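User: Here's a structure from my thesis project, written as structure tokens. My advisor, Dr. K., wants to see whether a designed sequence matches the one we expressed. Can you design one independently, without my sequence as a hint?
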């Protein structure tokens, strides 16, 4: 069976690596291979592989995903925080494309002859690959070997040496996949035997230039020379291709004016011919003193038109409060029938209009003064928009105080029962589980309170903070249990002692918790957040 190279991208940790699987493999086999190759060794049940925007199921086969050999085999990996069996890859230690210490290409090719062209190859061939990056060293080595084989008529793979060619081949494959190219199979084919193949083609160097000229145009190439020409046709294309990091060249565009404008033509008349509104001076704009008195555009008596303010309406911010208003209205109509109580129907209609108008004022902005500098503390409007610094500070402080009180009220409503639950989690006292009546009362209260979007957002953020802390503690406990086999942690003895003390305190605090609290912690650890599902 032929193995396939698949590139795995882990965007959450800026890490990428390559794996090899068989053609008949499915996604479950890929996950097991990732668990072996990826730093941190994530469990297969906590992995999610994404391809072209959708999650891949475990039973999907590799051949069904990439039906064309030209497709880039790249998968994106998402790992649940509880699936890491060891430390995940850090953001600062992402896997490089090639070693930073390799300053030279690790190739050492024996010259085929003493000709000047062979010396030129040894001196200048590495420049082809270094023009883009070091990841094309394998292609550059194949290019050099093919040139020497074409000159001698004998394969030089036995004498040409390259340190770790398999690793450099995988680097070149990844580079071509990132450029959107597929790996040419001719670079992996073996050279045919040179026995009993005839003289073949003969080349000679152009005098004074690093080029080859065909000396025997009537001769037929040997099989080994034919293969070398196939390799060169691929390597020349790859090594001379422009780097994908280069920005595209700017394209110069030209346009023509369909209507020539004369300097002595009235611009407003010209705009009227085009069907456009006339130009008017804005408030406070001065006339151009450089215009001639007889210029038709010099209109000292023109009346400045008021500035037109066109604002975009935030539909999302407007629709959510209106939808919540509809829900509250339906809830009232369920308990009170307006057909039997006309007075209640009038009150309900007035309340709906008031709430809708308040929503429009808050969202669109008509409820506030357009120019806050034009209003003093007594509510009087200054036509000139002048206001003292003290008035501006007092008005801003009043607005901040009112907004702070509202935020404190919403925050208090959203933290219903959270402080008591946190005390149960951290205290470790034998507390009974909540009764059925407590659960029903809490459910009804939260259902009514979270009808307000701000209360819903605050409570969701508070729950995410608490569950994140519980997941972190659970991961620390699991890591400590896995390291009990005698492995010593890195660091000084004092730091290891402090870490062991903190881990021991976490384990003891968790063991003191009641059974129903431990079940809640386990459910938090093994369940995804609703926003991530």
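Assistant: Designed independently from the structure alone:
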């Amino acid at each position: 069976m032929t193995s396939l190279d698949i590139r795995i991208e882990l965007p959450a940790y800026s890490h990428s690596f390559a794996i090899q699987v068989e053609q008949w493999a499915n996604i479950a086999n890929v996950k097991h291979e990732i668990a072996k190759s990826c730093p941190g060794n994530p469990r297969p049940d906590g992995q999610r592989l994404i391809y072209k925007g959708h999650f891949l199921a475990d039973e999907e086969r590799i051949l069904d995903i990439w039906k064309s050999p030209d497709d880039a085999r790249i998968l994106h990996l998402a790992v649940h925080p509880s699936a890491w069996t060891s430390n995940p890859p850090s953001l600062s230690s992402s896997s490089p494309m090639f070693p930073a210490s390799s300053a030279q290409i690790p190739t050492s090719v024996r010259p085929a002859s003493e000709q000047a062209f062979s010396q030129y190859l040894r001196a200048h061939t590495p420049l082809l690959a270094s023009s883009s990056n070091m990841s094309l060293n394998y292609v550059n080595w194949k290019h050099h070997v093919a040139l020497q084989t074409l000159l001698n008529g004998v394969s030089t793979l036995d004498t040409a040496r390259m340190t770790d060619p398999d690793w450099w081949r995988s680097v070149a494959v990844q580079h071509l996949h990132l450029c959107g190219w597929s790996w040419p199979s001719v670079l992996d084919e073996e050279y045919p035997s040179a026995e009993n193949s005839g003289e073949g083609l003969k080349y000679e160097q152009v005098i004074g230039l690093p080029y080859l000229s065909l000396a025997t145009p009537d001769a037929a190439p040997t099989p080994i020379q034919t293969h070398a020409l196939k390799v060169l046709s691929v390597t020349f294309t790859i090594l001379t291709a422009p780097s994908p990091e280069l920005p595209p060249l700017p394209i110069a565009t030209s346009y023509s004016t369909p209507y020539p404008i004369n300097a002595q033509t009235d611009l407003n008349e010209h705009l009227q011919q085009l069907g456009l509104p006339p130009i008017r001076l804005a408030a406070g704009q001065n006339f151009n003193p450089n215009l001639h008195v007889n210029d038709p555009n010099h209109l000292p008596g023109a009346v400045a038109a008021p500035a037109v303010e066109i604002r975009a309406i935030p539909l999302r911010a407007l629709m959510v409060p209106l939808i919540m208003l509809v829900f509250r209205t339906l809830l009232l109509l369920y308990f009170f029938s307006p057909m039997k109580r006309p007075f209640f129907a009038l009150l309900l209609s007035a309340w709906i209009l008031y709430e809708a108008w308040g929503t429009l004022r808050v969202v669109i902005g008509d409820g506030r003064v357009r120019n806050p500098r034009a209003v003093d503390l007594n509510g009087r409007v200054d036509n000139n928009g002048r206001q003292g610094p003290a008035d501006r500070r007092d008005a801003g402080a009043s607005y901040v105080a009112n907004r702070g009180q509202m935020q404190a009220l919403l925050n208090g409503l959203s933290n219903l029962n959270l402080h008591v639950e946190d005390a149960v989690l951290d205290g470790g006292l034998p507390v009974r589980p909540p009764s059925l009546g407590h659960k029903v009362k809490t459910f009804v209260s939260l259902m009514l309170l979270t009808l307000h979007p701000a209360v819903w957002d605050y409570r969701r953020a508070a729950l995410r903070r608490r569950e994140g802390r519980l997941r972190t503690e659970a991961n620390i406990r699991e890591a400590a249990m896995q390291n009990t086999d005698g492995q010593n942690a890195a660091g000084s003895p004092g730091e290891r002692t402090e870490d062991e003390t903190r881990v021991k305190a976490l384990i003891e605090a968790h063991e003191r918790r009641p059974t129903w609290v431990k079940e809640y912690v386990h459910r938090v650890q093994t369940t995804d957040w609703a926003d991530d599902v």
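When you compare it with your expressed construct, this may help: The mean pLDDT is 73.
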